[in-house]
Amino acid sequence: MFKWLNGMVAPTLLLWLFAIAFGVASSLAPGGQLPMRADLASRVAFPLIISFWVVVDAQKRRKDLCYDFDSFIFFASPIIVPVYLFQTRGARAFLTLLGFAAIWLIGMLPVFVVSLIKEIAP
Description:
The chain is mainly alpha-helical. Helix content is 76%, strand content 0%. It has one domain. It has five helices and no strands. α1 (9-28) packs antiparallel against α2 and α1 runs parallel beside α4 (93-107). The chain is elongated and about 55 Å long. The protein starts with 8 loop residues before the first helix and ends with a helix. The relative contact order is 0.15. The mean pLDDT is 87.
């Protein structure tokens, strides 16, 4: 196993599973829009998974986080996660952010394939 992934398998796997499940659900949903309950579940699940990933990463790096930092990440993840990544990794945070983007793009691949099939085959 890769040294950099040691101890990060569970949160990274959860992130992959969420991205793929979201992509498949979005591709199967009529009009590409998830039903209201599924949309709500995805809006809650994604920050939870990101919070879990950051907390496990901080434990792996032996970085002390402030009290209730995971809740702070849940509510402000688009701002806090990049700040955390740049504090812990410096310029290498771009690689982690690029990895997150790659996971999300690969998860959205089913949406692209289904929409392409719908356009080609009437």
